[in-house]
Design goal:
Blueprint: E1 10-13, E2 16-19, E3 27-29, E4 34-39, E5 42-46, H1 49-86, H2 97-112, H3 122-134, H4 142-158, E6 162-164, E7 166-168, E8 174-190, H5 196-210, E9 217-230, E10 236-252, E11 254-256, E12 262-264
Antiparallel strand pairs: 1-2, 3-4, 4-5, 6-12, 7-11, 8-10, 9-10
Helix pairs in contact: 1-2, 1-4, 2-3, 3-4
Protein name: Protein of unassigned function
Organism: Methylobacterium oryzae CBMB20
Length: 266
Amino acid sequence: MMNQRYKCKSLVWAGASVPIVYSQIEEEQSDNYGIIRISLLGDVVVRNKIEFFALLSIVLPCFTAEASCLEDARNFSIAMCDKILKSEFASSDNNSAYLREKNINQSIKELLGEKYLSDDGKVFSNYQSIVKFEVSTPDIDISSCRQRIFSRISDFQCKKKAVISTCARPEFGLNRWDREEVVSGNSGWRGGGHSQSEWCNDLAAQFMRQHGIGTEHVVSQLTTGENRRKKTFGHVDYSYSCSVKIKWDPIYNTKTDLLCGFSAIE
C-alpha cells in the first residue's frame, strides 16, 4: 500500500535496531554462519540457516513493498496523464481553472483509492500538489507528463530514484517500414461478377499469405489495367492487371517513456 511504504525503515535483530537502506540481499555462507547485507551502514551476522531465513522473512517484505511502490507510481502517472491530457475534461469546454482542478482531484481519488487517503489527507494533498504543479507547464505532452509525475512521486512516496526506460512502441508513431515490395500480376480471363479492385486485393492477399505478413502492413495501388473479350450469346470475359506496393515490418519511434518501464537505482 502506498501509505505503508515508510514502515520498513529498520528492523530489530538481536536486541538492536538495524537501519535498512534498500540494496540487494546477499548471502555468504561458511560452515556455520551467513551474512545478510541489508544496509549500507553495516551487516547483520546470523549464526545458522534458521536465523538466516527468519531474518529474510522480516526483510523481504520491505523490498517487495519498495518495488510495488514504484510500480504503483508508474501506473498512477500513466493513468493520471491519460485522464488529464486525453479525457473529456482536457477539451476547451471544460478547461476553466475550477473544473480542471475539480476533475484532477476526483481523478486522484479514483486512482489512489480510499485506502490510500489516510494520514489526515496528507497522501492526497501531496499527490494533488504534485499533479497540479507538473501539469501546469504550457503545452505539456503526455510523455513528459508521465515522467514528471512519476519522478516526483518516486521521490516523495517511495523515497527511491528510478530511471525510465527507452523503447520503441506503436504509441510513439511509425518511423518507417523495414520491408517493402512491388507485386504485379494478371488475373487471367474471368467471367462477369468480378472487378478490378477485387483482383488487386486478391493479389496483395496472396503475397501476404506466402510471406507470413501479419496485420501490420500497408498496401498502395500503383497501376491497373483491364481487357475484355466478347463470347457467344453476348457474354463478356475480363482480364485484370494490377501492380501494388506492400510495406510491412514496422519500425516504431523510440522514446524514453514510462510505457517502457523503469529501473530502480540502488
